[in-house]
Write a structure and sequence with these properties.
By secondary structure, the chain is α/β, with parallel strands linked by helices. It has eight helices and ten strands. The protein is globular and about 50 Å long.
Length: about 240
């Protein structure tokens, strides 16, 4: 089974192709440009490097969120378009699941953190047990201080990963002290290979979707929607 996966949920754009037990190619670009400019050329380069065409791919996968609203829309639309053109299935993978998967077989807990702005983060808690990645706390949006209080109660070592660790590194380090470890640069950004591996596991279990069904998982309202809600006193996810 060949899986082509992309992730455009953050600043970096990445594409990978795996074929059963082999990673055939992975591209990561974390430099300027917008996802609308760079993701299709990256996909084409990945396919050309493996002498493949879109119709050779069995499943198209994408990091469906949370993350950048614009980036998620571009990623999901791109994968849905490729799947529609080739009449193939798609798989959406949580961006946070994929970030946690960047750190295989770690001891302690893995806490992916993505900056959601306004002192809030997208996060979850994961743990490897018997070679499998388990979700300890489902993905959610929290204030940074709320996350710190949750992590203070955990007895394990804590490994933090994701772009939010760069934004809040000082406050997290000061609050959690020696129990916290920050992921290395290579693991701290989106990797399409992680999206592809998780997507293949889902596909093997028959957990695929139609390109008509896959939509982004924003996990919160857009900035524009929140401002509209505040202006008109409408209760939303950040207006409890």
């Amino acid at each position: 089974m060949k899986v082509l996966a992309i992730d455009t949920s953050s600043m970096s754009a990445t594409c990978a192709i795996i074929d059963d037990d082999r990673l055939l190619v992975e591209y990561i670009l974390n430099h300027k440009l917008t996802h609308s400019q760079k993701i299709m050329p990256i996909i084409k380069e990945a396919l050309d490097s493996c002498s493949l065409k879109p119709e050779d791919i069995d499943v198209f996968a994408v990091a469906k969120g949370p993350g950048s609203f614009t980036g998620l829309r571009i990623g999901v639309a791109t994968v849905n378009g490729l799947a529609q053109a080739t009449n193939k299935k798609v798989v959406g993978v949580s961006t946070l699941d994929a970030l946690a998967f960047n750190l295989p077989y770690c001891e302690g807990i893995i806490v992916p953190i993505m900056d959601a702005r306004r002192e809030r983060v997208f996060t979850g808690i994961y743990k490897w047990t018997n070679g499998n990645l388990h979700i300890i706390k489902e993905q959610t949006a929290l204030e940074v201080k709320e996350l710190i209080e949750i992590l203070r109660e955990r007895p394990e070592k804590i490994i933090l990963v994701g772009d939010g660790t760069l934004v809040y590194k000082e406050v997290l380090s000061e609050a959690l002290g020696e129990k916290v470890i920050f992921a290395p640069r290579s693991a701290n950004m989106a990797r399409a290979s992680s999206v592809a591996e998780l997507a293949m596991s889902k596909a093997v279990e028959g957990k695929t979707e139609s390109y008509f069904e896959l939509i982004p998982d924003y996990l919160r309202e857009s900035q524009a929607q929140r401002e509209y809600n505040e202006k008109h006193n409408i209760k939303g996810d950040n207006n409890e």
